[in-house]
Amino acid sequence: MNEDKLLEDIYQNANTGIYSIETILPKVEDNRVSAELVSYQGNLEQIAHTARQMMALKNMDPTDSGVMSRMGIWTGVQLNALRDNSASHIADMVIKGNTMGITKMTREMNQSLSGDPQVRGLGEELINAQRRSIETLKKYL
């Protein structure tokens, strides 16, 4: 995997998280959990923005994650939150999503042949943001 692919993967991973939070926020009734999610979303937006800027310097156009992916996220959130929208369940949902994001990003970083320290650093920043979010949300379980 080259650095362009890794950069695109970072952008997509961050945007998936942003969309997931946008989808789940209206279901959250606990103001503390909402605040945690909004803060985390801001971190993801900064990472996506940086990735987009790096892509622009390479004349790359970011691709959309796709309607089917967004539909799957939306449907999953609606069904899960309908069943239980407690702070504990919302935290659990986000933790599971972050765990999937970390797993995917770690795999992509390990398979990448990119030697660009800025791209790799951004990937590490994303993974670390996801880890911090998990640690922050554990107290609501």
Quick gist of this model?
The protein is mainly α and 141 residues long. The protein contains five helices and no strands. The chain has a single domain, classed as Ferritin, core subunit, four-helix bundle (Ferritin).
3D architecture notes:
This protein has a single domain (3-140), classed as Ferritin. The model has no long low-confidence stretch (mean pLDDT 90). The protein is mostly helical. The protein is built from five helices and no strands.
* CATH topology heading: Ferritin
Radius of gyration, whole Å: 15 Å
Mean pLDDT metric: 90
* Helix/strand structural class: mainly alpha
Low-confidence stretches: none
Q: Which CATH class?
A: Mainly Alpha
Order of helices and strands: HHHHH
Estimated helix fraction: over 70%
Tell me what the CATH architecture is: Up-down Bundle
Number of domains: 1
Share of residues in strands: under 5%
Globally, the shape reads elongated
Distance between the termini: 37 Å
Total strand segments? 0
Can you say what the CATH homologous superfamily is? Ferritin, core subunit, four-helix bundle
Secondary structure tally, helices: 5
Biggest pleated-sheet summary: none
Furnish the topology, listing elements before pairings.
Elements: H1 3-24, H2 31-57, H3 67-83, H4 87-111, H5 117-137
Helix pairs in contact: 1-2, 1-3, 1-4, 1-5, 2-5, 4-5
